[in-house]
Amino acid sequence: MTVLNRSPKRKKRPGALSDAPISLVRSPVQEGVRSSGGGHSGQTQKADMLIIDYAKQRVSSVIKEIDRLRQSEFPYRASRDCLNELKEIFNRRLFALETAPPGSASARNECTVSLFNLFVYLPILGFILRSTNARNTFEAYGPLLQLGQRILGKGNNLILSSEWDYSPYVYKSIADLPAFTLIGLPASESSNPLLVPLAGHELGHSIWASERTLLKFDEIVKNSVLQEIDKRWSEYSEVYPYQEKGDMWTGKTAEIPHLWAMLQMEEIFCDFVGLRLFAESFLHALTYLMSPRLPGERSLPTQISLIACVISLMHLINSQYPFHRILNLDSWQRMNQQSLKRNYSFQ
Amino acid sequence: MAFSNPASLGQEILQARDPELLFLASEAAIDIDNLLLGKPARLKSMQILGSKLRFITPHPSDSQPRALMDLATFSVLCEAVAKVSEIKTAQKIEDLNMQVSRIAKLLSSEKPNPDCQDLEMARDFCIALSKALMDYRMAIRDMRPSHPFRK
């Protein structure tokens, strides 16, 4: 069951205060803050109190759960440190809920923020718990930690977990936990040494974030998208007829293609980090993990088209090196010629 | 409490991707509501948020913007500004900068006047900003393909 269903285009119920723009419909709750609560019925007050109580209970439950998790035996210190940081985050939310004036718009908003936090951080608690599982590749932990600390600094902590998700992943850009890199690797492959080079790609995400690589390219990509809109203005204005050149809304519609481009760039960057750290073994790991490929087109590049991209670039750098023969990737490259041509043009 | 250090704010670039921004916006709204009710308010979140906003919006006397604003942050600010009645007419980037700069000044004030009508507008802006930030982060989350059989 999907608990939080985000549907931005859903129809608003008439008089639905929580959905209405806050400026256009002033709720009795908001009025209650300025005035002495005139027009604020007893029932609404009761409902508001209930919402805050529920929010406090939810946050308290997580804090208790964190305390219980802290009693577990952890194979390395980073997991316990991360739990302490998470507890601080939820304590801060509880404090905000306790200081928010009951019945106020900000109290209601804080209830939403604390709820949102549960969706963001509860999976991380699960991840930390699973990092204690005996199924984990603890042998790989030490070398990967050393590697991460050499690149990201001594203060960087690594948490490694066997996950029930086939695609390796990293929890990146957790600004509240900047000193932690959380890497999940597929449980079914826990005895496979090729998992280690794959972690190189995931480390790349942390490097991308810590080096603020995004900021180096953001302006270039933003300008390219806006230039393209400008170039094809007549086409654009058919889709957005009410916008004029220089409108702030033009920048807003450019956000989605901009985001796609940045995400693609990050994935490519991470593949190069993996390649830089683990050389050929990284390519072997990708080959093992994803060959031949999943069907269909996606807005994000598939690993295979990334491989094709990496190989093409390597070929340009050193055309003598027989990557194709070693990795038997010629057939893949043929398969992905089209997407390669469309997405990347190095020559 | 894991607050940013206000002293280093001038060096920080405001980004929609920064979860701290969501917390600050929500806590600043709480601070303002407490101020409006004459209750003790800490003002710390207000001031930090104000400084962050001031850093990205050009001052009327500046000929150049102070810092680059990435598109995601720009998009989120547009959303927040559009939801506040007093400033929803903003159409041009200059209007947006002017309005955000006005709110930033209010938020960073050392002694905000609780009788000032603009404080309510600033509170509404903070709430709208936190909602827009949550919406933005959910949109990114939704880009991740879900399991084919998960409902």
Integer average pLDDT of chain B: 77
Structural class of chain B: mainly alpha
Can you give the helix content of chain A as a percent range? Answer: 55-70%
Order of helices and strands of chain B: HHHHH
**Low-pLDDT stretches of chain A:** 1-39, 342-347
Q: Strand count, sense and closure of the main sheet of chain A?
A: 3 strands, mixed
Number of domains of chain B: 1
Q: Tally of extended strands of chain B?
A: 0
- Determine the number of helices of chain B (DSSP H or I, runs of at least 4 residues): 5
- Give the topology string of chain A: H per helix, E per strand: HHHHHEEEHHHHHHHHHH
- In what range is the share of β-strand residues of chain B? under 5%
Task: Characterize the quaternary organization of these chains.
Answer: heterodimer
Largest interface: A-B, 57 and 58 residues
Radius of gyration of chain A: 25 Å
- Shape call of chain B: globular
SS content category of chain A: mainly alpha
Distance between the termini of chain B: 37 Å
The largest sheet of chain A has its strands arranged as 1-3-2
Share in helix of chain B: 55-70%
Number of helices of chain A: 15
Characterize the main sheet of chain B. none
